[in-house]
Specification:
single chain, 386 residues, alpha+beta, Substrate Binding Domain Of Dnak, Chain:A, Domain 2, SH3 type barrels, five-stranded antiparallel sheet, two-stranded antiparallel sheet, elongated, golgi apparatus, SH3 domain, lipid binding, mitochondrion outer membrane
Length: 386
């Protein structure tokens, strides 16, 4: 029975507190009650935390889209994560394309030029798929997980304490309002003409004023304490930014590794395709001849097959002629090229440079010269001019 009485009293007290906060909040919105303003430093910290939360969510979600464009796959991974189970491993798009290419090349015949090229392309696509998988795993561990931990952990704690601060502020302002009303009633009572009523009313309202002042001191103390707790939590946002900066560096490094791998894979593939002869046997053992270059120009790889992906399969005879020619030649640049180091020369598509061979240089490179600039340039990026 005593426990039931206690629960009823607690429920009534909580309901009274909730009603008091609701009334105070409504009167503030209507401009009928004063509101205690937080100090400027605390307001700035709250704004910074909210801004951090909003942009962290946006960056996190868009990174997930970047790493996994398939929305159904993202939902599936989310469900498995909530069930605390490991999502089943699935083949990604580059790996699937690579497998199709390898199967097609095997079917057409590895001894044919097209079949061999398909197999080589398929193997490269599968390597890219593996690199893509490693990028996703590394980015999820080193970048997405810390961002998610902030949203689901640290910021939830901040939001909880911020809500408590809001409630303590409403309690404080409600106490100020009650004290203000009690003092106003005490003043009116002192002005009554009846000496008996004046004495009774003064005593009643004096007690009410004392009670309101005590309540105000308590609510003020609780508000100040909660404001300090919230401030300490919010000041940790700067540390959060520093941690997220380190995570961002890890993400950039993972992307750099991935794109460097892809570039190297495709560069190797281009060299392999460039070594194919211009004349080859098809599956039906009929000879297919590549287009013959015109007499007006000697194009590096002009007798090669140009695939729809833009890769050029260059005739080895032209490369040998170019490497063995004496003196310098003018050449037009076919594609932009960024120098990998100081020994190479960066190129812009359609510019004309001077090229010449150097004894002992790798067969895939020539020495290029543009004004006072000189460096190695890849043969497959050039077109010789008369």
């Amino acid at each position: 029975m005593n426990i039931m009485d206690f629960n009823v009293k607690k429920l009534a007290a909580d309901a009274g507190t909730f009603l008091s906060r609701a009334v105070q909040f409504t009167e503030e919105k209507l401009g009928q009650a004063e509101k205690t303003e937080l100090d400027a430093h605390l307001e700035n910290l709250l704004s910074k935390a909210e801004c951090t939360k909003i942009w962290t969510e946006k960056i996190m979600k868009q990174t997930e889209v970047l790493l996994q464009p398939n929305p159904n796959a993202r939902i599936e991974e989310f469900v498995y994560e909530k069930l605390d189970r490991k999502a089943p491993s699935r083949i990604n798009n580059p790996e699937l394309l690579g497998q199709y290419m390898i199967d097609a090349g095997t079917e057409f015949g590895p001894g044919t030029a097209y079949g061999n090229a398909l197999i080589k392309c398929g193997e490269t696509q599968k390597r890219i798929g593996t690199a893509d998988r490693e990028l996703i795993q590394t980015s999820a561990l080193n970048f997405l997980t810390p961002l998610r931990n902030f949203i689901e952990g640290d910021y939830k704690t901040i939001a909880k304490e911020r809500k408590l601060l809001q409630n303590k502020r409403l309690d404080l302002d409600a106490a100020k309002t009650r004290l203000k009303k009690a003092k106003a009633a005490e003043t009116r009572a002192s002005q009554l003409n009846s000496a008996r009523l004046e004495g009774d009313n003064n005593m009643i309202w004096a007690v009410e004023v004392t009670k309101s002042e005590q309540e105000l001191r308590i609510t003020q103390s609780e508000f100040d304490r909660q404001a300090e707790i919230t401030r300490l939590l919010l000041e940790g946002i700067s540390s959060t930014h520093a941690h997220h900066l380190r995570c961002l560096n890890d993400f950039v490094e993972a992307q750099m590794t991935y794109y460097a791998q892809c570039y190297q894979y495709m560069l190797d593939l281009q060299k392999q395709l460039g070594s194919f002869p211009s004349n080859y046997h098809c599956n039906n053992n009929q000879t297919s001849v590549a287009p013959v270059p015109s007499a007006s120009s000697n194009v590096i790889g002009s007798s090669a097959l140009t695939s729809t992906s833009g890769l050029v399969m260059t005739s080895p005879s032209n490369l040998i002629d170019l490497k063995e020619c004496s003196g310098s030649r003018k050449a037009r640049v076919l594609y932009d090229y960024d120098a990998a180091n100081s020994s190479e020369l960066s190129l812009l598509a359609d510019e004309v440079i001077t090229v010449f061979s150097v004894v002992g240089m790798d067969s895939d490179w020539l020495m290029g010269e543009r004004g006072n600039q000189k460096g190695r340039v890849p043969i497959t990026y050039l077109e010789l001019l008369n």
